[in-house]
Design a protein that fits this description.
By secondary structure, the chain is mostly beta strands. It has one helix and eleven strands; from the N terminus they run αβββββββββββ. The longest helix has 17 residues.
Length: 135
């Protein structure tokens, strides 16, 4: 757990140096607990949202589709399982609107951390399947 906290602090420092997250004050950074991990909203405005997503080892998000939302995913560390492939740290994936997708973390000690840059509304989600019974 301490290793993960150190990595989170290091990523936060890198994001601050790059100017990511400056449109929200530190007191307004939103950390959203999910049954599969956490989402930290670094920046949100009318054009895009930037989030750090932590997925716990062996967990996965809902199977989902977006009508208008576009997502670009950068794998910071860990193994992300997406479209039947394992994407490791440094991988960049683009998910266009209308693409059915689900993020899964490999079952290792750290899970995975993603940087998501999305264009479109967060409410543009249709869950097709969910391990936790969410609609």
């Amino acid at each position: 757990m301490r290793r993960l906290q150190r990595r989170n602090r290091a990523i936060k420092r890198r994001c601050e140096k790059a100017g990511i997250g400056n449109s929200l004050s530190k007191s307004k950074l939103a950390v959203v607990q999910k049954p599969w991990g956490t989402e930290t909203i670094l920046t949100k405005n009318k054009w895009y949202t930037i989030k750090l997503i932590d997925i716990y080892p062996g967990r996965r998000t809902s199977l989902q589709i977006h009508k208008h939302k576009t997502e670009s995913i950068y794998v910071v560390y860990g193994g992300l399982i997406l479209f039947g492939l394992i994407h490791s740290g440094g991988s960049l994936i683009h998910i266009p609107p209308g693409t059915v997708h689900r993020f899964s973390a490999e079952e290792d000690a750290l899970g995975c951390k993603l940087l998501e840059i999305s264009h479109g509304k967060d409410s543009d989600i249709r869950r097709l399947e969910d391990d936790f019974g969410r609609k």
